[in-house]
């Protein structure tokens, strides 16, 4: 492929205000984004006593089950990821009969506390009314049965699947007297109990409530309205948090995986304000550490160019942060474009105007590297292949299990390490 | 089938994909939502197939689905043709495009004028049947569309038809076949359709002296090659020492000359050594648990391993075929294809003191009184890396005998 042609096809950040305006790097893509079915699977994985029932083709059900077998979250091979496999008869006449038969077997053998009936593209195309089936099955068996729609042709990636699954949990919640607990909503990577934020809350004596979807039970979801505040650690948790605020008056704080220390500090203050507790001294200490890390970073990072692929950190916030440190994005791959008023967007555009394209299409990117020649690639790629092109990978997966100021401290160090390695690579260090 | 607790039987579309991805110099373009493409990568990786730079998807939007807009597909075809210069682009349907009735053949027909690559459409959306339906279709399609004209004779060369990346240890088995045919007849392999081939090899395959057919699904392709080029074929799989000997005799009969003496002697010697196992079978026959085997896998594997068991006087009393038997001619009545997963689970859970040859899921369902060996996909508790551990031929039987020896050690 001609890299120059690919680059000329892309728009710049200043030219777009919505992801629909962003041109795909190529029409033929690989591997492409994950689908909402996978997102739904990721969400149900954390709800321990529930069952995931996928309704779809052999292929969709095969790959989903296959993904859940490794690890213990779903219970391995005998675990709680089940399916109803549709054939041409079901496509013609609907899946109702088969779904009901399968559900009876499911209840007899697994006795779950709740079931998520997850549709796939074909079910949505044929227009089966799975919502009414789920409602009827729930009434028949006396357990919560939630329909989650995961047609991929309506979404950019898998995140709507996570969002819709956790939002569907609202149906299980019941009014409760408010206590002192904090719910954690929207954590899709890592374990909240290993984060700085968890440690700070524990040391302040704040008990945890529902942690959806990182690890919870149906009983905890039912009691979720008892929380003093909802901690939303990813925007996918916002629809549920807003519903809970309307229904039960539970306030929420959007505490995403941010990297700007001032922002994180403000969120800590907001959270402890809702809890009516003083801000712990540890937060002040961590904030000072993070500020020192940032202050010393520019000397290492100024002038370093990069292509942004995918990281656990909020995309545009991280890019704005790096721009403030003197780094220069040449291309940002993203699945969402912030509006013109967004401060992160404005920060980036004050300094530069990077190309933007959609994520998960690494095949044609190989040809773009030769044209843009960045120092760094942030995200998942083949490291050896990149190093041959004198590009270093910044490993940001280490940030996945983090929340709080630890993201700043570790993130800055990762950027410094990768930038140092990139400079050495350009100066002739042998590819490792 | 109603509730599926484990892995469903792969569909025709999945088989079409994993077969076409093994054709070098060609690319595969899926017209459908991208998630399926991303999801399939791990399965293909387990089969030893790398889709990097050979598999692409268009993705689809809601507008494309509602309006039947195929511009995205047209652009992708042109782009792949210009950007990657493949000789062939296989354009494959998805479940969605199959349901909405996208005319892929029609699109490929009019787009053919705009590109250099040859466009071949496959409208499998996963609703035509299981993977054997897909294999049967794609083997036939590859030879009919790409075997081309006879370019010249390839004396001493043979093609393997019906090898599939979905057959456990197939690359090891191909090496064993290569070794056996080289030592027995001085033959060497031209191409292995379905695992390791290229467009150039396909184009020249009509010149081969012989076609070796490893599974029933490749018989229509073999028949077509016979009619088109006069290439004889031998259908059979070399499992067990006797089975391998008979297989070589079949080939010898077609070639009109016997297998090399050294190979026949080696097989005779091995059969003598295996007499110990027949003696064990006699000894255990009147004990509480007489030797018995259960086999789970593709039809030809079932037949081959059942033959191996009979060779050693072990009774294969449960043969389970996960795929449809509809297209099998003269199907062995002992072979069972369960209508529901539940029936199959029940049958496997009831097994006791059996030698079990099967896939990881089936072996998982058998209790500890049984002695198991993985011989087929799906793999869920281990990976396939080695390419020197066959199940077929002399080395394959040597290896399987080690499991049978273990079986007798625990049999009460």
Automatic annotation (TrEMBL), chain A:
InterPro entries xref list: Nase/OxRdtase_comp1, Nase_comp1_CS, NifE-like
Gene Ontology MF annotations: nitrogenase activity
Family annotation (PANTHER family): NITROGENASE IRON-MOLYBDENUM COFACTOR BIOSYNTHESIS PROTEIN NIFE
PROSITE patterns assigned: NITROGENASE_1_2
Protein's name according to its UniProt entry: Nitrogenase/oxidoreductase component 1 domain-containing protein
Sorted UniProt keywords: Nitrogen fixation
Source organism, top-level taxon: Bacteria
Domain Nitrogenase/oxidoreductase component per the UniProt entry, residue ranges: 35-402
């Amino acid at each position: 492929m001609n890299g120059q042609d690919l680059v000329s096809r892309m728009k710049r950040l200043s030219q777009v205000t919505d992801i629909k305006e962003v041109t795909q790097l190529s029409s033929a893509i690989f591997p492409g984004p994950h689908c909402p079915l996978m997102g739904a699977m990721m969400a149900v994985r954390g709800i321990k006593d529930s069952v995931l029932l996928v309704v779809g083709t052999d292929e969709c059900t095969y790959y989903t089950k296959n993904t859940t077998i490794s690890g213990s979250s779903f219970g391995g091979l005998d675990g709680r990821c089940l399916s109803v496999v549709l054939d041409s008869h079901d496509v013609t006449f609907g899946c109702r009969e088969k779904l009901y038969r399968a559900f009876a077997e499911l209840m007899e053998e697994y006795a779950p506390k709740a079931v998520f009936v997850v549709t796939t593209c074909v079910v949505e195309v044929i227009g089966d009314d799975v919502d009414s089936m789920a409602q009827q099955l729930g009434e028949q068996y006396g357990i919560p049965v939630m329909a989650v729609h995961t047609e991929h042709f309506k979404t950019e990636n898998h995140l709507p699947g996570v969002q819709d699954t956790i939002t569907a949990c609202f149906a299980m919640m019941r009014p409760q007297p408010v206590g002192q607990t904090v719910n954690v909503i929207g954590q899709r990577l890592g374990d909240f109990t290993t984060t700085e934020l968890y440690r700070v809350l524990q040391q302040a004596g704040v008990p945890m409530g529902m942690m959806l979807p990182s690890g919870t039970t149906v009983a905890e979801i039912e009691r979720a309205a008892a929380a003093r505040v909802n901690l939303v650690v990813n925007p996918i948790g916002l629809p549920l948090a807003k519903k809970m605020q309307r229904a039960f008056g539970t306030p929420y704080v959007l505490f995403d995986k941010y990297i700007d220390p001032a922002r994180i500090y403000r969120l800590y203050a907001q959270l402890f304000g809702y809890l009516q507790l003083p801000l712990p001294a540890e937060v002040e200490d961590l904030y000072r550490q993070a500020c020192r890390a940032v202050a010393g970073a520019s000397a290492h990072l100024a002038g370093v160019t990069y292509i942004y692929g995918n990281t656990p950190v909020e995309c545009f916030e991280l890019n704005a942060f790096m721009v403030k440190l003197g780094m220069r994005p040449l291309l940002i791959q993203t699945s969402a474009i912030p509006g013109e008023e967004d401060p992160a967007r404005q920060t980036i555009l004050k300094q530069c105007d990077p190309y933007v394209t959609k994520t998960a299409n690494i095949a044609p990117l190989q040809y773009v590297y030769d044209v843009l020649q960045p120092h760094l690639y942030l995200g998942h790629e083949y490291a050896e292949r990149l190093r041959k092109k004198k590009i270093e990978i910044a490993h940001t997966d280490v940030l996945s299990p983090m929340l709080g100021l630890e993201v700043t401290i570790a993130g800055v160090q990762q950027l410094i390490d990768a930038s140092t390695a990139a400079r050495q690579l350009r100066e002739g260090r042998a590819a490792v | 089938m109603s509730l599926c607790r484990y892995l469903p039987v792969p569909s025709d579309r999945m088989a079409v994909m994993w077969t076409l991805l093994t054709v070098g110099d060609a690319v595969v373009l899926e017209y459908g939502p991208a998630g399926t493409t991303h999801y399939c990568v791990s399965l293909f990786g387990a089969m030893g197939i790398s889709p990097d730079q050979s598999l692409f998807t268009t993705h689809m939007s809601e507008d494309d689905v509602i309006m039947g807009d195929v511009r995205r597909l047209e652009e992708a075809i042109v782009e792949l043709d210009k950007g990657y210069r493949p000789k062939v682009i296989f354009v494959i349907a998805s479940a969605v495009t199959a349901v909405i009735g996208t005319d892929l053949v029609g699109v490929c027909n009019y787009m053919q004028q705009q590109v250099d690559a040859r466009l071949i459409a496959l409208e499998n959306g996963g609703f035509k049947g299981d993977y054997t339906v897909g294999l049967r279709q794609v083997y036939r399609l590859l030879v009919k569309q790409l075997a081309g004209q006879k370019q010249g004779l390839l004396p001493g060369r043979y093609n393997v038809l019906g090898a599939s990346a979905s057959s456990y240890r197939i690359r090891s088995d191909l090496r064993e076949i290569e070794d056996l045919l080289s030592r027995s007849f001085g033959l060497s392999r031209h191409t292995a359709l379905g695992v390791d081939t290229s467009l150039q090899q396909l184009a020249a395959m009509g010149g081969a002296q012989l076609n070796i057919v490893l599974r029933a699904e490749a018989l229509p392709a073999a028949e077509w090659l016979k009619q088109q080029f006069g290439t004889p074929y031998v259908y059979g799989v070399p499992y067990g020492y006797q089975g391998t000997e008979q297989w070589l005799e079949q080939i010898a009969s077609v070639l009109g000359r016997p297998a090399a003496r050294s190979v026949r002697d080696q097989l005779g010697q091995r059969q003598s050594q295996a007499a110990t196992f027949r003696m064990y079978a006699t000894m255990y026959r009147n004990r509480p648990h007489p030797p018995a085997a259960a086999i789970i896998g593709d039809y030809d594997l079932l037949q081959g391993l059942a033959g191996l068991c009979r060779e050693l006087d072990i009774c294969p009393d449960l043969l389970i075929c996960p795929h449809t038997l509809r297209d099998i001619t003269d199907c062995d009545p002992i072979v069972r294809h369960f209508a529901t997963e539940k029936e199959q689970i029940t049958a496997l859970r009831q097994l006791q003191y059996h030698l079990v040859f099967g896939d990881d899921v089936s072996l998982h369902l058998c209790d500890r009184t049984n002695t198991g060996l993985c011989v087929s996909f799906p793999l869920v508790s281990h990976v396939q890396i080695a390419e020197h551990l066959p199940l077929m031929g002399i080395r394959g039987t040597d290896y399987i005998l080690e499991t049978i020896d273990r079986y007798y050690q625990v049999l009460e």
